[in-house]
Amino acid sequence: MNTILHITKRQQWEQAKNIGRYRADSLESEGFIHCSKSTQILKVAKKFFDNQKQLVILFIDSDKVQAEIRYELAEISELFPHIYGELNIDAVYQVIDFEAGEDGLFELPQEVINLEL
Fold first, then answer.
1. Alpha-carbon distances, residue 2 vs 52, 63, 64 (angstroms)
2. Fold of 3-116
3. DSSP state of 1
4. Could you tell me the residue ranges of all domains in the chain?
5. Alpha-carbon distance 31 to 82, whole Å?
6. pLDDT 10s per residue in the chain (117 long)?
7. Could you give the CA distance from residue 5 to residue 92 in angstroms, rounded to a whole number?
């Protein structure tokens, strides 16, 4: 299984489960859903989710994603997975809570560390 990760607000994920598909705001504004590999998730959290609460990480089986996935270069000269279309929710096999600590910093959850092993 090839896993990619996506950070979103818990409320957006709950709405997606109710309607059967997930659309990130970036799908409208940029044409794709931003995802990352396990080694990139903290960089993404720090850059885009600083001081936000009620976040979750979606663990996505990229082999089950119906939309096209492209690995594209980002500003930091790394390839990031982007989903070009709605995410079918049956591709998401795990969801975990993800919030910054009291110091405002994110820590790598054990579930993400396990992906790297």
1. 28, 7, 9
2. ADP-ribosylation fold (3.20.170)
3. -
4. 3-116
5. 9
6. 899 999 999 999 999 999 999 999 999 999 999 999 999 999 999 988 988 889 999 999 999 999 999 999 987 789 999 999 999 999 999 999 998 888 888 999 999 999 876
7. 9
